[in-house]
Design brief:
Layout lengths: L4 H10 L6 H7 L14 H22 L5 H12 L1 H10 L10 H5 L6 H19 L1 H17 L8 H11 L6 E8 L6 E7 L5 E6 L2 H17 L4
Antiparallel strand pairs: 1-2, 2-3
Helix pairs in contact: 2-7, 3-4, 3-7, 3-8, 5-7, 7-8, 9-10
Length: 229
């Protein structure tokens, strides 16, 4: 098969020419539009997550030969979390080429963090299956490069940081409340609010409750540190 114009442009954006274009199409196909003859990207997502983890673990070891496991682990988690994958996906305009069912498209699927993060991992797997580990490694290092260099600033757990912020000011720990859950069981989207005893609060959405809590905590912490009310 030949790639459509939009997928060919996307392949150019990520810097990879596919020998098997069907792999890219599958990586961008969400379950909401999949058929028996057009499989979705979930198996590729599973594989891509592992490839991404190996590449980034190796990159972190090379970047700081003296770092302990305790120092490396939070850096690794910051780089592989779904939020970061979604940020990279937005950077390469992946949402514009996602293949979605009508209902998912109408509900803003092209902007959803969980969908973007999953598809980003699937694209990594597609490159790996198409051209091998070296090509997938080059892709990850190219797209994550600046984040690897600056990961220390993002490595702290947002919920822990917010709790420390509150405790330093004599406040009780923040409270997290699940405000809603939408989507099918295989692709849920949670809305969570992080709130301090003083009333400051922020909300966030993610495909897992823990991720939504972390995102809400990060948003609230950022607002507090910027002095915004």
């Amino acid at each position: 098969m030949r790639l459509s114009a939009d997928l060919a442009a996307f392949a150019a954006r990520i810097g990879h020419s596919f020998n098997r274009p069907e792999l890219l199409l599958r990586a961008l196909t969400h379950a909401s539009i999949a058929t028996p003859t057009r499989p979705d990207n979930q198996r590729l997502e599973f594989l891509g997550d592992r490839v991404l983890g190996l590449v980034l673990a190796e990159a972190l070891l090379e970047a700081d030969p003296d770092a302990s496991e305790g120092q490396l682990a939070p850096r690794f988690n910051a780089l592989v979390r779904k939020e970061t994958c979604a940020e990279v996906a937005r950077q390469i305009e992946l949402g514009a080429v996602l293949k979605l069912g009508r209902s998912e498209m109408m509900s803003g699927g092209r902007r959803k963090q969980a969908l973007l993060g999953d598809a980003m991992e699937a694209v990594i797997a597609a490159v790996y299956l198409d051209a091998g580990f070296a090509a997938a490694r080059d892709l990850v290092l190219r797209l994550w490069g600046e984040r690897i260099a600056a990961v220390e600033a993002d490595a702290r757990d947002a919920k822990t940081s917010l709790q420390e912020w509150a405790q330093a000011r004599g406040l009780p720990p923040p409270v997290y409340a699940e405000l809603g859950r939408e989507g099918p069981d295989h692709q849920p989207l949670f809305t969570v609010e992080a709130r301090l005893a003083t009333g400051e609060a922020e909300r966030a959405k993610a495909g897992a409750k823990r991720q939504a809590e972390q995102a809400a905590a990060a948003a609230l912490l950022a607002r507090l540190e910027n002095g915004k009310r």
